[in-house]
Design a protein that fits this description.
Elements (H helix, E strand, L loop, with lengths): L5 H16 L12 H14 L4 E4 L13 E9 L2 E7 L1 H8 L3 H11 L14 H11 L2 H6 L14 H7 L1 H11 L22 H9 L3 H10 L12 E3 L3 H14 L1 E9 L5 E7 L5 E5 H11 L4 E4 L2 H5 L10 E3 H8 L8 H8 L13 H25 L3 H21 L1 E2 L2 H26 L8 H11 L7 E2 L2 E2 L3 H5 L6 H24 L7 E2 L2 E3 L9 E3 L11 H8 L7 E8 L2 H10 L2 H8 L4 H10 L8 H15 L4 H8 L3 H14 L1 H17 L1 E3 L5 E3 L8 H37 L5 E6 L2 E7 L3 H14 L9 E6 L2 H4 L1
GO biological process, one term: double-strand break repair
Pfam family, one: 5_3_exonuc
Catalytic activity: DNA(n) + a 2'-deoxyribonucleoside 5'-triphosphate = DNA(n+1) + diphosphate
Length: 791
Amino acid sequence: RKGMPEELKEQVPLLQELLRKMHMPLLMMEGFEADDILGTVAKQMQAEGKEVVVVSGDRDLLQLSDEHIKISIPKTSKGETKVYSYYPKDVEEEWGVSPIEFIDLKALMGDSSDNIPGVPGMGEKTATWIIQKYKSIEEAYAHAEDPEFKVPRKPSAGKDLKEHFELAKLSKELATINIHVPITLNFSDCKWENYANSESKELIRKWEFRSLYSRFEEAESTTEKKLSLPAWKDVEDPYLAKIAFKDAKKQKTAGIFLQADSSEEGKLYVYLCLSDTRLYRIPLSLCEEDLKELFKEGEYFTLQLKDQYHLWEELLEGEIHDLSLGAYLLNPLKDSYAYDDLARDYMDLVLPGKKELQNSAEEGLYSAFVSWQAKDRIFQELKDTEQWELYRDVEEPLVPVLFRMEKAGILVDKEALLSYGEELKKNIAMLQEEIYAMAGEEFNINSPQQLGVILFEKMQLPGGKKTKTGYSTAVDVLEKLQEDYPIVGKILEYRTYSKLNSTYAEGLSNYVGEDQRIHGSFQQMVTATGRLSSTEPNLQNIPIRTEMGRVFRSVFIPKEGSVFLDADYSQVELRLLASLSKDEKLIEAYRKDADIHRVTASEVFHVPLEEVTPELRRNAKAVNFGIVYGISAFGLSEGLSISRQEAKEYIECYFTSYPKVKEYLDGEVAFAREHSFVKTLFGRRRPLPEIHASNFMRRSFSERVAMNAPIQGTAADIIKKAMVMVDRKLAEKNCQSRIVLQIHDELLLEVVKEELATVKDILVSAMEHVVSLPVPLIVEATVGNNWDEAH
């Protein structure tokens, strides 16, 4: 029979490693299957007078059922698992045969899940009739030509058995459990305890078995250390504060955390951890000068540093390491990097979460304590995973840059914003009346259920797909109908205007501060690829392809005496694909500054370069960018509205034209399968825990991510490095100009007019020369009196 699937085979040693770290006794013997060892041990225990229970989902084990051996089979249905127990009478009741006859039953009907072939065409009912009458396949074979061998509704059963008896014998051999394996179970070795220990926890943390991790935590009430904070001092005496800082200055290192006390009208406290037993809370007003003096030398450790900059800018003067950032690099798939997350992941400690704390002082104390305790482990893991330079040279110096961007904010013409909002509302009201007139009645256009009934029942539009909650009115469904049915176009237009109004006209105005600027947040520890994300509000998501979307960009303006300078990387991901794949033809095209989409169209569609039409170029552009994202033939066919076969041929032609791209992408997937992660040019890791998933969709998604993440992540690393360089150069030149926004591959600066030439040179030079690649990076920089003009 077939061997174990390769994907499963690769994971067996990993499972064994985890079980050993859980102190689980393992019974193994080369050349024998697990069923054989189970059967042998069950019979040994029975012979010693013990009552035996065998728990397994494998029905083959029913043959072991005995008055003293119970087979328990868990079965899951509709999310509920029940355990069914079988003694011999239970086997006979359900299967109509005895446990020993169950072997012959399996031999006839086969079992694809266990690679037992059985007799072709013979199902469970036929096999059961034969074994009930003849008790074994050998006896049935001996009577297969007898006149009374007449299986109901299966007249060919005897003939089938005669023809395939060798296969039936092989199947019986495969189904029979060997109960004579030369192995002995020592009952005293079966004691199992302390499975939720630091070694096993570290492994399941590394492999990201999240649900298992939470179950370990529940079990750790008896096995895991739970922390009570060391005795801490609430320092209110200036003399005692000076002693604490004198000790800190002497050792030149500490865990530190700055926080506003919610119960004392925002009074700022410094939390200082100098050792496992020395922990202090000191009012900032009592120690400002001591803290500034402390930062003149030494290195210090904290969590969520950018938030603390907003409380006290003088923190910028110290060499302070943000361990949350380090934890993010080590596992970018988590959604939190607070003190309790780091304690669990790097200190083997369970701490109460923020919501469980009695007061804000506890959060500060825990944060300082964890910063002190976790620093060595996190730094060592960054070095072990070759991400130390990425942390030190890119992520850490970016923190003050993002703080300055948040503090500066971006100026908004609020009157223009409100005016556009009113215009949108008029358009929405007008569209609403037109839709009612076309439908012949009023209804809630925002309700998918009501809209579905109007379109697909009352108006009888084709293509209605009914789900449990009603007809689907998703964009992809409606877009296919809008050309032939005007009401659908109006509905899509209504949705666009409604979203622009709620998200931007009304949404943005809520964030405009007293200084008429929006001070958003740039999140550094959110995306798995390393990209920054923008929140409160999301300024990276303002549409630019629609006229109204561009209007919203125009409400962002520079302060008086300044202009906006916008710099955008040209095709950075395609240039990275060429550089990382080392495909000579792609590299040459870029070095000649050729139109890469026309070149690809010429190669893929086999037409001379001068005969490439705009439509062919558009299709080639979709192929170029699709390849970067690991697009499938189905995805490309949907995007270009062509057949799947055509899309498949396009992709194949692309890879024929650029063979090293195919080689590179396949190599990334192979690397991911071996290591369960991929990495960027700068060493950033993107974990892929589902690269071996049995579910096709999840596995395929992981493979596409394996192709794209190194490219998208490298692009993210590049612009982060450029931001650090630009910020540093602006400071060196004493420029008043500053970075105000980052939108993936684009930087927007508010530039004092007199500094424009200098700043433009700094910006373009930094962005284009941040890294040396086979394909040069090209930056397009433009100037404008609002964001839309500058873009």
